[in-house]
Amino acid sequence: MMNTVHFGMQAVISNTIFFQTLFKDRSGPTMTWRDYFFRVVPTGLATALDVNLSNESLVFISVTFATMCKSAAPIFLLVFAFAFRIMIYVRGLVQKIKRLCFSSQILQIFKDLFLKGLWHGC
To answer: What parts of the sequence cross the membrane (predicted)?
Structure first.
């Protein structure tokens, strides 16, 4: 029931935004079909594959392990940003990203241990 309400709210909000912007003046820059297929389509396909393969992986691994894998994503984003020279190397940023990923993985491990009752620390 809650999913139905959620999807219904999404539909109402997206239709409202769509119809509000439908009649606005569009004198700004336009995107050619070539630009669209080389910039928008690959991003959409990558996002669709990410979501679908993540959902498919839940058949084989636990939700906790999947969350731990997803929490390591900022490290890979940072590595590719440095590799493609999108960002300049800053030591403080690297330390913060490492701390963020490490702490989220530790929290996931403790959550898994609490749920399975393997750790009686509290």
So the answer is: 72-90
Q: Where are the alpha helices (DSSP H) in 1-122?
A: 2-22, 33-35, 41-57, 63-71, 73-83, 91-116
Quote the domain boundaries for residue 90: 62-122
Domains in the chain, number: 1
28 domain residue, yes or no: no
Give the pLDDT means over successive 10-residue stretches in the chain (122 positions): 84 90 76 88 89 84 76 79 84 84 77 65 50
Tell me whether residue 77 is in a domain. yes
Q: Tell me whether residue 47 is in a domain.
A: no
